[in-house]
Design brief:
Helix content is 52%, strand content 0%. The protein has 85 residues and is mostly helical. It has a single domain, classed as ACP-like (Non-ribosomal Peptide Synthetase Peptidyl Carrier Protein, Chain A, Orthogonal Bundle). It is found in: Cytoplasm.
Length: 85
């Protein structure tokens, strides 16, 4: 499993209380996982901390599925000096 997927999955399972079986790419954040706006804000905050980046609320509003979050995490470069060469 690649790092962005591990990070997103770990956050949803370990910190948001989801089961690993629920956290599949096609799962809808609201209807399948039951995330409300406060849960989504918590996901945003934890992702920012874990990835060392800033994420706009407009980007978060576009997330509807786990795959949307995975795509964002995979497409977002790590800040300079945080990765391995």
């Amino acid at each position: 499993m690649d790092q962005p997927r591990m990070t997103v999955t770990e956050i949803l399972v370990d910190q948001m209380g989801m089961s690993a079986e629920q956290v599949v790419p096609e799962a809808d954040l609201r209807s399948d996982l039951g995330l409300d706006s406060l849960d989504t804000l918590e996901l945003l905050t934890v992702l920012e901390e874990q990835m060392g980046i800033s994420i706009s609320e407009e980007v978060v509003r576009q997330w509807t599925t786990v795959q949307d979050v995975l795509d964002f995490a995979a497409a977002t470069p790590a800040p300079a000096g945080s990765g391995s060469a």
